[in-house]
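>> received
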Amino acid sequence: MNDKQIEKIKESIDCWEKIADGKEQKHGADDCPCCIEWFESDCEGCPIKESTGKYLCSGTPYIEFIKNDMDVSTEGGRSAARKMIEFLRSLLP
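>> returned
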């Protein structure tokens, strides 16, 4: 993983911590540091895609978050947000 990928994962962790704490409501591709960097190239170069082999965060807890209506006021939404943080942390060297 290169320095840019590490930086974007760390920025994404910061975003997800705010989401999990209910301090941030934005959590789409327009708000994700990794998506902002790699979405236009079908996620090529994104460390999340490199980990899962899938684009659009398929194969990550983000899908569980979507299934919980992207709502951290529910236990399912909070749990999925916390799982996303742990997933992102697991990508760091």
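>> The chain has a mean pLDDT of 94.
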